[in-house]
Amino acid sequence: MKKFTKLSLVAAVAVAGLSSANAKPLEEAIKDVEVSGSVVYRYDEKDNSKAPTNQTKADNNYKIGLNLSSKVNDYVKFNSRFIVGGADSGFAGGGLDTSSANDQNVEVTLSHAYFALTAIPNTTVNVGKQGLATPWTVANDINGNEQTGTGVLALSNVGPVTLAAGYFNQTNLDKSGDHPLKNSTAPLITYDIGTKDIATVAAIANIVDVAQVEAWYLTMQDQFDTYTLAATSKLDLAENAKIGLEARYVNLELDNKNVLGITGDAKKNDMFRLAVDGKVGIVNARIAYTNTGKHGGLTALDNDAKNTSLGWNLSSNSIQDAEYLQLALGADILENLNFTAHYGSLESKESAANTERSEIYGQLTYKMSKNLTTYVRYGQNEVKTKSTGVKTVDQDRGRIQVAYTF
Question: What's the CA gap between 45 and 377, in Å, rounded?
């Protein structure tokens, strides 16, 4: 009887809670909730048997992202994002090594939790924990790490121009992002940059729906000041002929060159990129040329960000006085099946680097439906010393990926 009484009391408390003045029927409570997300599985294998490391490594990679958006009232919406993956909002465990780790359960983390205010006409103000939506960072990525911060971001449309301003007093940049300022790369830096404030402003203009021009400025407390200028265009030349153009310049100057243990003018970093891509009929192609500054090439806080150039194994980020050429040529085998060959060559003229990097790989992509895509990729990557011709990396690499979005 005592046990029954205890259970009855618990049930009574639960019922009382559900019957409170603020409670709603479940159907009404969820009708204004929008759900979206993604599920990605990736298998990666690297064969370094020909390189000095003499090691083969294979990883299983998983990431699930779930976005929930709930209407609070006519002017406020609450947004949240949950990640099943790694602590950096990337793949679980940064890749689960099949040869040294057993099958594991992974963490669920709250990545975003912010309110979007729209009371001011043509203006949205996001307040709370959110993605860092800048050209230096990646706010959302279905299959990579993401950069977040807690603060305020305001976006306002004035005719064809969008103005943006943001301030964040805390970020995850000490854990997420591929860049030499990460705390994990000590002794390059000796304190946690995740505690450093970030401020940014931007103006983005659409010119007659043909081109987009953008200008951004960002500063990180006690670290650096940076700006970027970019112009992009998407043109329909004919019914089955489209072309995209991009010109981008990034300048980043470190506040203290000794932070990275460097000398001379190396605290000055910049990058310039020209890129053309297009599709004519069943044929697709891309060519991009990137040049980094003779003093330094640190221009982004993640290698996937817009303000740096990334291939598969190659990235121009942090490479000093470099030229990076990217080429791609492919064709549709079927309406939903494409094969594209990629080539990249990255060479630094800086004497200390003295390296040549190159990669070549092919990718077969099958888009089964609008929300389900899979691809198989295989290629070769090498790094050699220019003065001696000795290879320091000679790697074969393969990948299989399945991505589902909803």
Answer: 11
CA distance 142 to 91: 9
Q: How confident is the model at residue 351 (pLDDT cuts 50, 70, 90)?
A: low
The residue type found at 270 is D
| Entry pTM | 0.87
In a domain, 301, yes or no: yes
CA atoms of 24 and 91, how far apart (whole Å): 37
pLDDT given for residue 20 in this prediction: 43
Question: How would you write 206-273 as a 3-class SS string?
Answer: EECCCEEEEEEEEEECCCEEEEEEEEEEEEEEECCEEEEEEEEEEEEEECCHHHHCCCCCCCEEEEEE
Residue 80, domain member (yes or no): yes
Total number of domains constituting the chain: 1
Beta-bridged to residue 356, according to DSSP, are 347, 384
Using the structure block, give the residue that is written with the tokens 């112009």: 231
Structure-block tokens of residue 189:
């830096």
> For residue 198, what is the domain's CATH number?
2.40.160.10
Helix (H, G, I), strand (E, B) or coil at 80: strand
